[in-house]
Amino acid sequence: MKHFWTVVLLILILSCSSDRNNGNPYLQEVAFRFELNLNLPLYNNLNNIGNPIYVGNDGVGTRGAFVINAGSSFMAWEASCPNHAPNDCSTMTIDGQNVVCSCEGYTYNLFTGQLLDRPDDGNRYYDLLFYSATQNGNTVIISN
Fold this sequence. Notes:
- By secondary structure, this protein is mainly β.
- It contains 1 helix and 9 strands.
- It has one helix at about 1-15; strands spanning about 35, 55, 65-70, 75-80, 95, 100, 105-110, 130-135, 140-144.
- The strands form 2 sheets. A 6-stranded antiparallel sheet has the order 1-9-8-4-3-2, with no helix packed on it.
- The longest helix is centred in the N-terminal third of the chain and has 14 residues, at about 1-15.
- It is globular and about 45 Å long.
- It starts with a helix and ends with a strand.
């Protein structure tokens, strides 16, 4: 009976982890909170459905964040391409309602976060890293 409880305790200890790993080896989850005032010209495009913006302020994600008004809510995503380590070409650019990584040309949808042109080569590819986006009056708060 003593060995049974030792095994149970060992399993519990090994199954508990404070690691918040999102499963993506390239991007760490960075804690931040940033407010977007929709009354300011810089964020005014978010008043219309489907108009994304890039927030490149220091302390916002790894390489900034993309925010889009999805109609019934706002969506926010990490701006660094999720399929390689952050580098000189990893900050993506907006192309309509998608973002494109200039390193290898991967395209991601800002409504779903999905990689649209996923290679069929058997390798694992990651979708965009999601950030929380909540609206409070004329302010959208993005955070992780």
